[in-house]
Amino acid sequence: MTSGGSYDAVIVGGGHNGLVAAAYLARAGCSVLVLERRGEIGGAAVSFRAFDGVDVRLSRYSYLVSLLPRKIVADLGLSGLGVELRRRRMSSYTPAGDTGLLVDTGDDARTAASFRAVTGSTKDFDAWGEFYARAARVAAATFDTLTEPLPSRAELKRRVGDEEAWTTLFERPAGETLTALFGDDTVRGVVLTDALIGTFAGAGDEDLKQNRCLLYHLIGNGTGDWDVPVGGMGAVTGALAAAARGAGATLVTGAEVRSVTPDGEVRYTVEGAGGAEHVVAGHHVLANVAPDTLARLLGEDAGVQPEGAQLKVNMVLSRLPRLRDASLDPRDAFGGTFHVNETFSQLETAYAEAAAGTIPALPPCEIYCHSLTDPSILGPAERAAGVQTLTLFGLHMPARLFEADNERARADALRATLASLNSVLAEPIEDCLLRDPAGNPCVEAKTPLDLETELGLPRGHIFHRDLSWPFAEDPADAGKWGVETGHERVLLCGAGALRGGGVSGIPGHNAAMAVLARRHGETRAG
What we know:
Layout: E1 2-12, H1 16-27, E2 32-36, E3 47-49, E4 57-59, H2 70-75, E5 85-86, E6 90-96, E7 99-104, H3 108-119, H4 123-142, H5 153-160, H6 163-171, H7 174-181, H8 185-193, H9 209-218, E8 228-229, H10 233-246, E9 250-253, E10 255-260, E11 265-270, E12 277-287, H11 291-298, E13 311-317, H12 330-333, E14 337-340, H13 344-355, E15 365-368, H14 370-373, H15 380-384, E16 388-394, H16 406-422, E17 443-446, H17 448-455, E18 490-492, H18 506-525
């Protein structure tokens, strides 16, 4: 065993939140050590050449950005380090028979006409505008509070200042709201999908888990826009790593943390170092791992384990597929989020099937094409050949479906999901898949159990655990940062912190602010 000295902060996990915390703390003059288990920095926010001989850098796990505050981008100088988030004009397209619902953020008249074609009137288009106006009022009042100490429920409700908007998002199950507001099953489903990303829930569940998920999908930077990271997600974490290193933080990869003690002792081994154990002391330990994982490292009972519920599929295509609506350019359809069999009733049926332990017969999923907005992820030859990427996120695929035989269930889930996609296209997606030099189709699937193995996410839960409300549910927590644990010197700084989830950097920022506030208090006391 070797001693590695002591640090003001030891950060367990080098994902984007850990890097945000490291950059803030190092810029404030703290000594910081980041320990990352994988061979590269970035956690789930990395880019990767997934297919041999194909020069395409896919955002392998996480893929879009909405919740990263402009404040963090400005504070850490990320724009100067290459971070660029590009807006998509097309919000979404949802096939419906031989037509489809297109939401074009640059042309309200075109969107209204699309609603009329699908629903027979513009009544739901008007209700759509009403719903998202309410969401915008909540977003404007809520988003900036995510990088402040936790408000109480009453304080956040006062800031929102809109009783109907508050009731819609915070109190009434999403299913009830959508059923009352919209008449069309397709329109209801398009909104409901944002309540189910990474969340296994029914539309009407009384615990409002789906509402919390919907809220975070609607409030990013006060607009709810989901933007494309130019260069892929690895460009974002690459810039964060540069900001942390540039400020003086030490980043170590291949470092497997074995244990953490409440008084700040961290034991770890480094890959390729002969198994020797290192021990360091941290005045604070910031855990950029799931609460479940932190409990294990502390030797504590983790309690009820969370459960992820998604199938992630990465594809590289030789060309975009033809649509059943031949009048629509596929570049418009795939330029935003492409919804597949995600009507309200289809989502509820799939949830019931998965809850009963079977892969849904018609898996709902959604797709986006990174390369249409940002072709920089394509190599020169691929770009010249017109190659495109597709990222598919399948809903209602809980870990329980894969536990008996992950490999077999992955193949079954992928087969069913591609069949679901084919049911809304004019040709099989398999005919459009690029093949690598060995003749293999460029498609890969990741189950919740794959994410657990590769990223340490408990049962593949992409938010580490169910999302929280953005206020102090316990009045005693009002004024805290939402990163505290039962141990004074150990803080959460990952997605499992209050107000965590998504590529946001918010828990990393908040953990750093909690440490700096304590240091300031200690300095004054001294």
